[in-house]
Design goal:
The protein is an all-beta fold and about 130 residues long. Helix content is about 0%, strand content about 50%. It contains no helices and 11 strands.
Length: about 130
């Protein structure tokens, strides 16, 4: 089992920044690729960003590329999502997720079904 707890959400004006954190506990943090997803009201959960086992590979949704950065800290068993230049359309509940991985790649990490463990989510609201 892997337990994931997100934090760092809140209300921010357009153009502002937030950093989301996701603390992991349970099984070895080193064995999991990690991702961030988001879900706006009335919409399906969508991929935001992913990071590989070593942290050496990352991938992003086109909508956030160049504005968001995913990173992981092995000492703290935490994955982060730095969000800059936020837009009202970024408003959503943000979830972190973990999937057991063998290969150090983010290939195949862009879909909801690939993840076994999920956090409870943290709300991000961007006002215009």
């Amino acid at each position: 089992q892997v337990q994931l707890v997100e934090s760092g959400g809140g209300l921010v004006q357009a153009g502002g920044s937030l950093r989301l954190s996701c603390a992991a506990s349970g099984r070895s943090f080193y064995n999991y690729g990690l991702g961030w997803f988001r879900q706006a009201p009335g919409k399906e959960r969508e991929f935001v960003a992913a990071i590989s086992l070593s942290g050496g590979s990352t991938s992003y949704a086109d909508a956030v590329k160049g504005r968001f950065t995913i990173s992981r800290d092995y000492a703290k068993n935490t994955v982060y999502l730095q969000m800059n230049t936020l837009r009202p359309e970024d408003t959503a509940v943000y979830y972190c997720a973990a999937q057991f991985a063998i290969f150090d790649t983010t290939q195949g990490m862009g879909t909801v079904k690939g993840y076994r463990y999920w956090g409870q989510g943290t709300q991000v609201t961007v006002s215009s």
